[in-house]
Amino acid sequence: MHGETRRETREFVGGRIRAIREARGLSVSDLQDLSDVPELTIVTIERGRMVMRFENLLCLARALGVPVTELFTDPDDREAEDVDE
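RESULT FIELD:
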């Protein structure tokens, strides 16, 4: 994520939230129930259209069962690191 614009960062993090949510078989409504973050906020974050509050990111990460740092981590980069070790 080095050198990216703020918009690109928002889109990346939103995409990570969506990917993790879908991998866990959760709907946006399910994630709302688990996180207490409004559904419209989740949808807007996932689309990269909202400046995210850290509090919302923490709530979403907890609801998804991942550390908040996972929302900023490219899984492809992590897999490449595992291969190098």
